[in-house]
Amino acid sequence: MSCPCSQTTLLRRVALCCVVVSRFAGFFFVYYKPDISFPSFDVDMKRDNRSKQHANATDVQEDAEPDTVVLIWMWPFGFKLNLNCDAHNFKRCVLTADKSLYDEAHGVLIHHRDIRGDNLPKDPRPWFQKWVWFNMESPTNTQQVPHIDELFNLTCSYRLESNIPVPYGHLEPRASGEETFQVPPKDKLVCWIVSNWNPNLIRVQFYNELKKHVNITVYGGAFGKPTSEEEYDHIVSSCKFYLAFENSVHKDYISDKLYRPLMLGTIPVTLGPTRQNYEDHVPGDSFIHVHDFPTAKQLADRLLYLDRNDTEYMKYFDWTKKYKVERAAFGTTHACKTCAYLQQHRGYEASRNLKEWFWG
Ligand SMILES: *[C@@H]1O[C@H](CO)[C@@H](O)[C@H](O)[C@H]1NC(C)=O
Ligand SMILES: *[C@@H]1O[C@H](CO)[C@@H](O)[C@H](O)[C@H]1NC(C)=O
Ligand SMILES: *[C@@H]1O[C@H](CO)[C@@H](O)[C@H](O)[C@H]1NC(C)=O
Ligand SMILES: *[C@@H]1O[C@H](CO)[C@@H](O)[C@H](O)[C@H]1NC(C)=O
Ligand SMILES: *[C@@H]1O[C@H](CO)[C@@H](O)[C@H](O)[C@H]1NC(C)=O
Prior knowledge:
By secondary structure, the chain is of the alpha/beta class. 29% of the residues lie in helices and 17% in strands. The protein folds into two domains: 68-166 and 331-359, no CATH class; 170-327, 3-Layer(aba) Sandwich (Rossmann fold), CATH 3.40.50. The chain binds 2-acetamido-2-deoxy-beta-D-glucopyranose (NAG) (5 copies). The site of one 2-acetamido-2-deoxy-beta-D-glucopyranose has 8 residues, from loops.
């Protein structure tokens, strides 16, 4: 049964149909490319224009693909970052700290520890834009901030179950031509550098027990011997063992305290999450875990034994034949990985309850 007004309705439908088809065809010809391309936002024109100004001849072809813009909303801890992803070999990433590019930014990277008062973006969020919560401190050392639980689309932290996980370090395969790693000469047995002394911390209690059984050479502000960055490398590499004791115990919270000794050719003695969790990150035979022994005395005995038996000591460096340590560049690695993530995940991503996820 047809409606009495069918003539006009039909005409309208046909007209509408034509419009839709022609729009689609136009869209298709303008935007079709053989590979998947980023959804086109109305800012593409401007952005293409901008990148063309800088482009070299070889870049021009690629240039049809719009860049992914990551806005660093605040310098983390006030440190200016190197805004360049070349070291990561990520293409088509524009990292910027220019807040006037807010409306173009596909991602806004917000460092938790620098959130205060009302210093978050106030303009409406473009529909395609994702806010990224960035934090490398453990829950114990991260103050909760009210009213931010539902703000962020993505998390970027040391935690492996972050949307954008950035551990403090990771192991990369060694290239075949690369020189083999040389364990540096040692003149100390066990060392520890610590600036923040708090007798309530597990690490201090463990140290007090361990030092009864083995000599520990100590440095750092806590012992009235502040240590510069240059001194750090020199000291740590000259010790057979280094106490890689984290300030707090949380899953995946494995900081430079592990990765720097590994890099310098010193065996880390780890206190932090479980051995199993460490083994999610680095080979099980690259470190000694305080829980490997029922008592601090037995741990000390093992260290003293390894001091006497070089064959056994050197086994802890077998991994260096295959791998080398790469450390994350604070802030820059996070921004670059955010860019790569955004390029690979272009759909909607709901915020998660941050409080429950991080502190819960
Ligand atoms: C592109 O850049 C030129 C100069 O660099 C400028 O004059 C022009 O207005 C820009 N076009 C758009 C669409 O932003
Ligand atoms: C253009 O190429 C030159 C030489 O190959 C290089 O030094 C320069 O950094 C390139 N510029 C850009 C914007 O890629
Ligand atoms: C620590 O070293 C001193 C001498 O440097 C030595 O007398 C002492 O026995 C050592 N203590 C332990 C527990 O090895
Ligand atoms: C050192 O350890 C090896 C096993 O790796 C053993 O064969 C050797 O007897 C040990 N040497 C000493 C002095 O304990
Ligand atoms: C990001 O999260 C906010 C808040 O939940 C939401 O309104 C917005 O649509 C999300 N954006 C994207 C691109 O997923």
